[in-house]
Amino acid sequence: MTGATGRPDRPDPLDDDLGWMLGIAFRGYVRAAEHVLTDFPGGPRGYQVLTAAVTGPGRNQGAIAEELGLDRTVLTYLIDDLERPGFVARRPDPADRRSRLVDVTDAGRTAWEQRREALRRVEAHLLGSLTPHESATLRTLLQKVACSTQATDPLRDLCEAVTEARPDPARERR
User: Fold this and answer.
1) Is the pLDDT of residue 158 over 50?
2) Separation of alpha carbons 174 and 171, rounded Å
3) What is the DSSP letter of 17?
4) Which residue would you say has higher pLDDT here, 4 or 121?
């Protein structure tokens, strides 16, 4: 493979580094998605919360926070942001009067559909170098990895995940 060095006799060591590849693709997606969602309440995270509301029955904030890997306090602010323009509504949980369920409204569903279409165009651009079959295969494989990772190691506390990922100097000296 010809690497980023442009020399076929000396491939770039990053060419097969999963973290580098995911990082480049992720940063490209995030830049484009932020542009599409620049005026959306809560930006990309607000869109994810609205997606959770659109794609399922009303759930409580704790369930949504766990599903998305968001801190509950952050989620509260995001739901507040989505409630202002009428995209979601909170209602009491009939099974637990202390809990509130988050439901999508008609306005929220319309806003979600519009942004979903714009994000599909972003995805098509990002995956433009792939054939339709390759794009579908990549999506299937990424979904499998993401679901497997989430099932075995749910990101309930992102600070804890970062701490665990950092190298331990004491362990490296052994």
Assistant:
1) no
2) 6
3) -
4) 121
Helical (H) or strand (E) element with 125: helix 106-126
How many other CB atoms are there within 10 angstroms of residue 111's CB atom?
A: 21
DSSP state of 85: T
Neighbours of 49 (CB within 10 A): 27
DSSP state of 13: G
pLDDT surpasses 70 at 38: yes
Query: Could you report the per-residue pLDDT of 66-85, keeping only the tens digit for each?
Result: 888 889 899 999 999 999 99
Backbone angles phi, psi at 128, to 5 degrees: -60, -25
Higher pLDDT: 6 or 138? It is 138
- Record the tokens describing residue 115, joined without a space: 């942004």
CA distance 13 to 36: 33
